[in-house]
Design a protein that fits this description.
This protein has 182 residues and is mainly α. Helices cover 83% and strands 0% of the residues. The radius of gyration is 23 Å and the shape is flat.
């Protein structure tokens, strides 16, 4: 085992250096963004009112670990099927993390602005749930695309379903949902 490591040290050290470099750049970028956001006073800084920096502090590091691992695998000597499987797995985890963060930001954004307009609580909950569903559907479509599943037919079915639901008369929809209550 040690002989192989000494014979192939260059093939081991390059991906490891790439991985560590990306993580260090990620930590630096995270600190720089944190300083820029917190430089303004709290009352005038709209970004800090909507974006809670603690929500992305750890996520930012996870994103750069995933990106660093992806780049390190791409420059490594892994065979092509192993690189493809790793690429798809890391891409799926990255999409899941970005989805979680996008949902958190969207809900904070909606609550912030709808509370400023004194909107009713049911409206805020409904808007938050609609945004959550839209973000989740988009992330599922992106993940399916990463794994090579054709998403265009699924997208067309979703668009057609939404069009049918919107174009139906209001009393037709209420009668349809009454069937499920029996």
């Amino acid at each position: 085992m040690t002989g192989w490591m000494f014979a192939n040290w260059f093939q081991i050290i390059v991906p490891l250096l790439v991985f560590v470099t990306v993580i260090i750049l990620g930590l630096w970028a995270r600190l720089a963004i944190y300083k820029v956001i917190n430089r303004q006073p709290q009352k005038t800084n709209l970004i800090s009112n909507v974006i809670n920096i603690k929500d992305i502090w750890n996520q930012f590091l996870i994103w750069f670990i995933l990106i660093g691992a992806f780049i390190a695998v791409q420059v490594s000597i892994f065979p092509a099927p192993g690189k493809k499987l790793t690429e798809e797995g890391l891409g799926s985890i990255l999409v899941l993390s970005l989805t979680w963060t996008a949902i958190t930001f969207s809900v904070n954004f909606i609550r912030f602005y709808l509370n400023k307009t004194k909107a009713a609580q049911p409206l805020t909950v409904m808007a938050s749930n609609i945004i959550k569903i839209i973000i989740m559907v988009i992330s599922v479509l992106i993940t399916l695309e990463i794994w090579g599943v054709p998403t265009f037919p699924i997208f067309i079915i979703l668009i057609a379903s939404i069009f049918i639901l919107v174009s139906r008369p209001r009393n037709y929809l209420t009668k349809s949902f009454d069937l499920f209550q029996d």
